[in-house]
Design a protein that fits this description.
The protein contains nine helices and eleven strands. By secondary structure, it is α+β, with helices and mostly antiparallel strands.
Length: about 300
């Protein structure tokens, strides 16, 4: 996992009561009063999207022992539910904003852990790597059972993200993979183990700056992901468009089944690959990797 130079901005201010008001640039807002939610914009369904922000804010208040009402405003450069970690970035930014407002000086480990509470609402059993990436920035290697390791990378990677615009259920995709694994364990288990080996080799390639090799490994990983059933025609269409426009490698990101793919470029090919993705029906986003994690400051 690697951080992108795309940002979620969260502003927090105090209220005169103890409720939490959350407003998003998605055009939704509402007020949480204990266990109840009162929608202002976006209808009652907006509470489901705003709930992780409330959870992150209340977890921070509980951690710091402060009882206050909060106004929280969210603006995001990341599409929601597209496999780019937008929910984690929002949760991390919320914790950091509330911490800065209260001047409680949480460390980065505390911020990532509190944000994980909100991630559990979204993904039920998240690994914790997404909040870690959003908190610390840079390149993170995660292996189940071994935890998180920060890697060193000297080169900023030029990327193009292609959004299919298709929504998907992470839980449903996980269930589909589990069902296939139960039916065909002798086939699926080796694919999953091979994906783990591939990830380790890819991390080494990134640390050494071998982008050609890393791109080739991205393509191989996409083949493995397709084999276990998490790619689809829309993602494949954008991936092959990017490869045909000279991407070094391209694969889906996140849970698959829709959402986004990501293409690794050289510095001079980003515009051409973005055009190819657009021509294939996707919405391109140009980005680079970032060493910078969460940042917080007080406005004058």
């Amino acid at each position: 996992m690697v951080a992108l130079d795309r940002r979620v901005t969260v502003k927090a201010s105090e209220r005169s009561d103890v409720s939490i008001r959350v407003a998003s640039d998605l055009g939704i807002s509402g007020i949480f009063e204990g266990a109840s939610f009162r929608a202002e914009r976006g209808g009652t369904d907006s509470g489901r999207f705003l709930e992780p922000v409330r959870i992150a804010a209340e977890a921070t208040l509980f951690k710091t022992g402060v009882k206050k009402g909060l106004n929280i405003e969210v603006q995001s450069d990341l599409p929601l539910g597209a496999g780019l970690g937008s929910s984690s970035a929002t949760s991390v930014a919320t914790v950091a904003a509330v911490d800065k407002l209260l001047d409680t000086r949480l460390n980065q480990g505390d911020i990532a852990e509190l944000a994980l509470a909100a991630e559990r609402f979204v993904h039920v059993n998240p690994s914790g790597v997404d909040p870690a990436v959003s908190t610390h920035g840079g390149l993170i290697l995660y292996k189940r059972g071994e935890g998180i390791k920060r890697l060193q990378m000297d080169t900023r990677l030029p990327l193009v993200i292609g959004n299919t615009g298709l929504t998907r259920s992470t839980g449903r995709l996980v269930s589909l993979v589990r069902e296939r694994r139960d039916r065909l364990p002798d086939i699926v288990d080796p694919i999953i183990r091979l994906a783990g080996v591939l990830t380790t080799i890819a991390a080494t390639a990134l640390e050494s700056g071998d982008l050609q090799k890393f791109g080739e490994l991205m393509d191989l990983d996409q083949g493995l992901l397709a084999a276990i059933g998490v790619s689809n025609e829309a993602l494949d269409h954008l991936i092959y468009a990017a490869r045909n426009a000279d991407a070094l490698g391209a694969k889906l990101t996140g849970a698959g089944g829709g959402g986004c793919m990501i293409a690794l470029c050289t510095g001079g090919t980003q515009a051409r690959i973005a055009d190819a993705i657009r021509g294939a029906g996707g919405a391109p986003i140009t980005a680079e990797t970032s060493e910078s994690g969460v940042q917080a400051w007080l406005e004058n």
